[in-house]
Write a structure and sequence with these properties.
Layout lengths: L2 E5 L4 E4 L1 H6 L2 E3 L5 E6 L6 H12 L10 E6 L2 H6 L14 H5 L8 H13 L10 E7 L5 E6 L5 H14 L4 E5 L16 E8 L8 H22 L7 E12 L12 E2 L16 E4 L5 E3 L7 E3 L13 E11 L1 E3 L1
Parallel strand pairs: 3-16, 4-5, 4-6, 6-9, 7-8, 8-10
Antiparallel strand pairs: 1-2, 7-9, 10-15, 11-12, 12-13, 14-15
The structure holds zinc ion (ZN).
Enzyme class: hydrolase
EC number: 3.5.1.15
Pfam families: AstE_AspA_cat, AstE_AspA_hybrid
Amino acid sequence: MGINSRTGKDLCVHFTAAAVNMATSSSHSAVRRVAIFGGTHGNELSGVLLVKHWLKHGEEIARRSMEVRPFITNPKAVEKCVRYIDTDLNRVFDNQSLSGDQKGKVPYEIEQARKINSLFGPKGSKNGYDVILDLHNTTAHMGATLILENSRDDFTIQMCKYIQTSMAPESCAVLLIEHPGVKYATTRSIAKHPIGIEVGPQPQGVVRADILRTMKNVVNYALDFMQYFNEGTEFPPCSLEVYRVLEKIDYPRNESGDLGAIIHPSLQDQDWKPLNPGDPMFITMDGEVTCYEGENTVYPTFVNEAAYYEKNQAFAKTEKVTLMAQALRL
Ligand SMILES: [Zn+2]
């Protein structure tokens, strides 16, 4: 399937009608194995607490048609309540790191990635888990967010649509991280259908009951969708509005690399809201304002995310895109 048109400022992308007509439904095999990952970042506590709870109370996430396995992915980081020990576990699931040909002392997270890949993968093989739900928190004001890696995966698009509809009236944005120049190599990427669940705002090392409840609801709706699918429910063709990552924006920095300005108050907590040409983005200690000079309206997300200061990212620019998925049935 291809993307055939972009229209003006809405930046809507549609699949061709011809391609949709060629096959009106896609058939998938039943979902047999699902993993729920918590603690990929050890200081994002909603996922850590939920997965630890479900390890003792598996009946809460059990669905009769499939195996559902909760798993703490970075136990040492969880124990220390830090994001990671040596390197970010959520960026090392590339073939080179997983293949084991790295020389010298192997960073803890790479050892861990290999272990996870052998338990739930191998990545890219038919033996990998069908679905991995990877639980994260953000300090940004993003609400419930589903992270989609592939714009052509009808199964996951249909699952996102089901979760979004079930969550209403609470918002549930979908962030598409597919990008020609950026490969994330996420922990969940070893599954056939990976999905990140990112809920915020919640400070690192803190757990809030409202954020925890939202995350729990998202997981349960995802499991319900898979159970209904396994039972033979047909899901009609759907469209899904997603925010596609365009570019990461760093803070203004001085000669020594220190922050030269911080997020402007009018951008703070405005994740998913339009940022129009001329709108303020940053403000210096002296009150000098930097404005957005792009040509098109964009939709910032991960605004002022604590974990991204080290990644030189103040926020990510996204555009709104509409994805289409064919009808889905077993
Ligand atoms: Zn995270």
